[in-house]
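Standup notes
- DV: blocked on the single-chain target, sequence here:
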Amino acid sequence: MAVLKVIEIMANSNLSWEDAARKAVNHAAKSVKNIKSVYVREQSAIVKDNEITEFRVNLKITFEVN
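- DV (later): unblocked, structure below
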């Protein structure tokens, strides 16, 4: 039987929501091992002068606990 834990992480990117999600996983992987899945809970963006300047994601990361 596997024991899984879920943490919630927020990340941002100037490029895209996908890039923000990748940054979140890469950052989490520095201290969390055995990441199994990512669930994008929310997406948002910052707009300045009618242009999107920042993409933001709120993720749930699931990992296996040894």
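- Follow-up: Helices lie at 17-28.
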